[in-house]
Amino acid sequence: MAQLNVGIIGVGSIATHRHIPEYQLLEDVNIVAYCDIVQERASEYAEQFGGKSYDNYKALLQDDSIDAVSICTPNYLHAEIAIEALTAGKHVLCEKPMATTIEDAERMIEAATNSGKQLMIAQNQRFTEAHELARETLSQGKLGKIYSFKTTFGHAGPESWSVDGANSWFFDKRRAFIGAMGDLGVHKIDLMHYLLNETFTEVGAMIETSEKEGTVDDNAVFILKTKSGAIGTMSAAWVYKGEEDNSTIIYGEKGILKLNTDSEFNYIFIDEEGNKEAYKLGKIQTNDAQTSTGTIERFIEAIQGGQPVPVDGQDGLASLNVIVKALQSAQEKKVVKI
């Protein structure tokens, strides 16, 4: 395979824990540029691993040798940088949520179409082994008709995760747009789209700022309905103390599927008679256990193989749309059609 040159835009925690080390695992990828508004962060990685450092992403995008970029910036910059990168002829892997408005997300999709370059959204939960097996199980009809589900992603908050701690942009509504819903909830929305192979048609939401300082949400629960009539809940929170919860349960006419609910077996199927199938598969990523997500590998494989990325702009838009409608639901205190 031909070598691909990559630039990292935003050298914060998601870049240093996920993007940079996962690119470094690939033999046919070189990270040749690092950019951060705090240039010392970019310079540290450039000096350690080689490459150039920038404090302005526009200068990085002028480098014609760069084939692709990872956008790991605060949410409000995703669309602006992605559109400029695509227009400059770069493939783009953008962190979630892909944008802060539906209009910006649509502009990103249009830029990808016009440029002929790939736009992938970093929804990494699709790529865990338990979720991939669950998708196969569900598509084969092992659970029969799906009746309901519960999916949850919660921990104590990004203070210990973010490079800026309690002063992180995560808590600034202007830069983040949303809090736990954008950090965690959008992952679970995308996951349910993937597992159920359909999108949601209605949402009712309760959204709170229960503990964190600032004006972004830290505790949200959605009730969701699919076109086929499955109803369930999604919880996203930065207020879960003592233990992270990153689990999904799906209820069907032929049994129950439990994903990441057990510390040992992260795929459990229980049929109508109570018979159990349990498998130990690859662990899901947590703030404490930084296993490889597979996201970067899939992004590079798509570029090199000339194939569509597995999570494209339309997928990112579908998840963002649920979040936007949930905000409307909470404000208007009623169920909203999507």
From TrEMBL:
<feature type="domain" description="Gfo/Idh/MocA-like oxidoreductase N-terminal">
    <location>
        <begin position="4"/>
        <end position="121"/>
    </location>
</feature>
<protein>
    <submittedName>
        <fullName>Gfo/Idh/MocA family oxidoreductase</fullName>
    </submittedName>
</protein>
<dbReference type="Pfam" id="PF22725">
    <property type="entry name" value="GFO_IDH_MocA_C3"/>
</dbReference>
<dbReference type="InterPro" id="IPR055170">
    <property type="entry name" value="GFO_IDH_MocA-like_dom"/>
</dbReference>
<dbReference type="Pfam" id="PF01408">
    <property type="entry name" value="GFO_IDH_MocA"/>
</dbReference>
<dbReference type="InterPro" id="IPR051450">
    <property type="entry name" value="Gfo/Idh/MocA_Oxidoreductases"/>
</dbReference>
<feature type="domain" description="GFO/IDH/MocA-like oxidoreductase">
    <location>
        <begin position="133"/>
        <end position="257"/>
    </location>
</feature>
<dbReference type="InterPro" id="IPR036291">
    <property type="entry name" value="NAD(P)-bd_dom_sf"/>
</dbReference>
<dbReference type="InterPro" id="IPR000683">
    <property type="entry name" value="Gfo/Idh/MocA-like_OxRdtase_N"/>
</dbReference>
<dbReference type="GO" id="GO:0000166">
    <property type="term" value="F:nucleotide binding"/>
</dbReference>
